[in-house]
Specification:
about 210 residues; Jelly Rolls; six-stranded antiparallel beta sheet; three-stranded antiparallel beta sheet; binds 6-O-phosphono-alpha-D-mannopyranose; binds zinc ion
Length: about 210
């Protein structure tokens, strides 16, 4: 994981010393429209392998027969301020591999936000997938994700991405720097529906748990 180069007080962007009146400067970070990588300062990356996703997929036999080192997804994020700081924004991407465990598509862990009223935008960049959403009453629904699709995820809504296509799914994201991640509720109770392949198509089915 790359070291984040954010100042200690977390209140300044990296180019602060270039903010002179009438100065025109290069951006600190770019979103490369060729390979959809975020490049520049304050960028960090995390990879999630199958071994990091124990309990996420329903078919335990299929899960157990897979290589635990298999990469499922990676997340890049540009964090110009410290995590937890009120008023800032983070920009990120999730890149999810194609494939299934049993009949369930590869997907992210999914989370509510730690500050649970914080919202988030997702947008489809490459590939096709499904954004699975669940409210506090455990109603679960989903939105189709494809290049150009835009998804407003309100506060109090858990969110998880599944890759339903044959290529890598890349999705952009922007969320408040004080949102945080609450994985515990999903780890304990899961979502109330699972995205499985039925007759060659993705279908959201009520969870049997
Ligand atoms: C998006 C954002 C990130 C999140 C990532 C992976 O890029 O929502 O905050 O970390 O997806 O999702 P998860 O944390 O559920 O694995
Ligand atoms: Zn989120």
């Amino acid at each position: 994981m790359k070291k984040i180069t954010v100042r200690e007080n977390g209140s300044s962007t990296i180019s602060e010393n270039m903010r002179n009146h009438l100065n025109v400067i290069k951006p600190d970070v770019v979103f490369n429209l060729g390979d959809y990588r975020i490049e520049g300062k304050a960028v960090m990356e995390r990879t999630r392998k199958l071994k990091d996703l124990r309990g996420v997929f329903q078919d335990k036999t299929a899960f157990g027969s897979e290589d635990p080192e298999r990469v499922v997804y990676s997340v890049q994020s540009c964090r110009p301020v410290s995590e937890g700081k009120e008023g800032g924004l983070f920009f990120g991407t999730s890149a999810i591999m194609p494939g299934k465990i049993g009949d369930e598509y590869l997907m992210t862990k999914g989370h509510f936000h730690q500050k649970s009223d914080r919202a988030e935008f997702y947008w489809g960049v490459q590939g096709t997938g499904i954004l699975i959403l669940m409210d506090r009453k455990r109603n679960t629904w989903a939105e189709e994700v494809y290049p150009g699709s835009l998804h407003y995820i309100a506060g109090e809504i858990a969110h998880r991405l599944a890759n339903t296509g044959a290529a890598k799914l890349i999705v952009g994201a922007c969320w408040p720097s004080d949102a945080g991640h609450n994985y515990d509720e999903i780890a304990i109770h899961g979502f109330s529906a699972r995205l499985v392949e039925r007759n060659g198509k993705p279908e959201l089915v009520a969870s049997s748990e």
